[in-house]
Amino acid sequence: MPGPGVAAAALLALLVPAAGLGAGATDCDVSPGSRFDCGPERLLAREGCEARGCCYVPAGPGPGPPWCFFPRGYRSYRAENVTATGSGYTARLRRVAASFLPGDVGCLRLDVLLETPARLRFTLRDPARQRYEVPLATPRVSGQAATTLYGVQVNEEPFGLVVYRQRSGQVLLNTTVAPLFFADQFLQISTSLPSHFISGLGEHLTPLVLDTAWTRVTLWNRDMAPVPQVNLYGSHPFYLGMEDDGSAYGVFLLNSNAMDVLLQPSPALTWRTTGGILDFYVFLGPDPKSVVRQYLDVIGFPFMPPYWGLGFHLCRWGYSSTDITRQVVANMSAARFPLDVQWNDLDYADAKRDFTFNKRSFKDYPEMVQDFHRRGLRYIMIVDPGISSSGPPGTYKPYDEGLKRGVFIRNATGQPLIGKVWPGPTVFPDFTNPETHEWWHDMVKDFHDQVPFDGMWIDMNEPSNFVEGSQDGCPNNNLEHPPYVPGVFGGRLQAGTICASSQQYLSSHYNLHSLYGLTEAIASHDALLRVRGTRPFVISRSTFAGHGRYAGHWTGDVGSNWEQLYYSIPEVLLFNLFGVPLVGADICGFAGDTSEELCVRWTQLGAFYPFMRNHNDHGARPQEPYAFSPAAQAAMRSALHLRYSLLPFLYTLFHRAHSAGETVARPLFLEFPQDRNTWAVDRQLMWGAALLITPVLEAGQTKVSGYFPPGTWYSLAGVGAPLTSPVAARGLCCGALCAFLHPTAGTSPPGLCSGLVPHPPSLVAIRGSQQWAGTPSGMQHPAPALSSFCCHLGLHHPQQRAVDPPASSPGHHQRPRPRRAHPAAAGARVQHCRVPQEGHGLGGGTDTGRLRQGRPVLG
């Protein structure tokens, strides 16, 4: 590998022939962990395997090496005519041997773009035919970086691309390890990995670090209660890897088709997608926080939520009248629990139809919401994308108007596709159509004129469908039955959703399916901004790369059990890596009965979710904080008070995410990448660089253990108090603690203004790197730890009551630059961190559906 001193321009033109491998050479002496599957679409017997020119070696049962695998030097494409361009270089790839796939593309164009010193992009396209590409707005770079952290080599035959770090020579991407495939509905490319540490590739119920021992990760958005090893609500084809020296890198495949990502122990990774093009970004870091920032430079920085959105939210499917909803709010107040946002599930809607309310059980619905506003509360209700289509003409405006304006997804005959969701027969808005955005805005405005809600909860937007495909089924064609079907739950692309062959404004649903939630989030964000003129607040179940620019996410219908409590931590951490920092799980669990102990522990952890909401199913036991014993209520109240005392700090972290591409909740390895002990820690989380949380995650525990990297840590138990609760803090910066702030009346959200929040605790320091175990006192809050968070990380605006901003806001890559306050003087005293006003350029972005080259662009 060339050393760091070799110029990037020279590296780009380097062609390396495959030494010692003639045409058709076969070498089956491949170690089991390095075998790449030669029968991805079906199980092959020896005869079928060898007919493909592949090797057949039976292995043991269960997950493990493929029995049929590619030999060394398997021929696919040859690189020719490497040519320098103003932005990098280009090459022609020619297929030198027919593959076993239908619709093989014989000639490809490779473009390598040296976009920034730390960001490389390369694409593989069919030059003879325009194929679907993800319509996500990404940076347009003119010219190329003069110097880079990376070097690139091209292997001539078989074609492969090698990307390595200039400083160390560490190979980050090496696609020569297995052949490239590019057919109409099957694209595959493999790479080696520099280490076994790989994190990302959501959304799945998974530990923070993925298992490289023959793991398949499927991306295809699906309405599915979270269980391990199943494709869930979102698709984020991005991973972050660590190198042995503590450096970090990232890879993003901009592709929205159904796909599998396969991990194997060599270690290596295979991307296997069913359409589109191969459009890769490689991020060089060199530290993990820089990798995340570089990724967000491509997909967009997160929106800035309103201050009230960081308070406590309460919901339940089963608040079946305004009387019950009002009583819940009254009970919270009587029990002295802070509450900022009250929600309603489908119960409010007339026959479960969007933009309606039940005139009997919710007869005073507008008055209830106005009364909440007078009390300082905000209000949010659920909105599903499925629009009821069963009523007589002229009786339901959203359907009548949508039909007239042509905004619904169409079936193969050109008629609106009819599925079935909560209201019965439904049609589905096509949010890739600009007219749909206008129609959606009009429906939101009409309903807001009746009921002045403050935000939107968009659910069922994978999109979910209670019948497979449509009420009339799906056509028997190659979009419904592609030659390769990834490991989607249900075994078919249309399982639990609409027909893949249905048509949308931009393309087929086959291509656009996993973008549905993102496109609805964009339309909802835009509608709220126009209707309310203030910073939008949208929470969505379905997500895709770039979602955090418009909305937050809750992790769906999690079960009320201890396993799901644990999994909520890596979920929150991963979505912060994905650029969706406003994320949280349903506190106490959604499905099934919680227990008092579980609900207390979940509330204690949930106090440190960036988005904090208690929500559960109508068939489960009540789980509002006041529904439990006095001892449990005291523990939950303490956790909520601690969160509210930290809101100025949390709000500052969100502004850093919005303006600088940082994370809010983050894994320990982001702060301590050189400490390998932190890399796999996913039972703890941090808020920024300052706060470490180590919660109780198992039943009946009186002790909790966590890892504290080297440094000075502080106890929240109080000066002079023994370290007998799982609370510690890290000493940073100037040593002045300024995250624990006791706001005064009139300066904060309603939960703070109630006067229920106690004064912040003091700190006592310990030193060293250690595994720490503490004994919680009764059912007190779990293990948060706070480092000194200096005011030079804060903003130079006086703290005030949250006020929504004007409608103006910065664009995609025009982030407001916060003014710096002077660093606080060193010392162990409490400082007041200042928080930003909500009218100073903190909006989340208004350009939600621009036109580029005659078609909508997302973002």
UniProtKB/TrEMBL annotation:
Cellular component per GO, a single term: lysosomal membrane
Signal peptide as annotated in the record: 1-20
Cell compartment(s), UniProt: Lysosome membrane
Chain ranges of the P-type domain: 26-72
Predominant location category: membrane
Listed InterPro entries: Gal_mutarotase_sf_dom, GH, Glyco_hydro_31_AS, Glyco_hydro_31_C, Glyco_hydro_31_CS, Glyco_hydro_31_N_dom, Glyco_hydro_31_TIM, Glyco_hydro_b
UniProt xrefs under CDD domains: GH31_MGAM_SI_GAA, GH31_N, Trefoil
Entry keyword set: Disulfide bond, Glycoprotein, Glycosidase, Hydrolase, Lysosome, Membrane, Signal
Stretches for region Disordered: 799-859
Biased composition annotated in UniProt, kind: Basic residues: 812-822
One GO process term, biological-process aspect: lysosome organization
GO molecular function: alpha-1,4-glucosidase activity; carbohydrate binding
Family: Belongs to the glycosyl hydrolase 31 family.
PANTHER family: ALPHA-GLUCOSIDASE, LYSOSOMAL ALPHA-GLUCOSIDASE
Job description of the protein: Essential for the degradation of glycogen in lysosomes. Has highest activity on alpha-1,4-linked glycosidic linkages, but can also hydrolyze alpha-1,6-linked glucans.
Protein name: Lysosomal alpha-glucosidase
Lineage: Eukaryota, Metazoa, Chordata, Craniata, Vertebrata
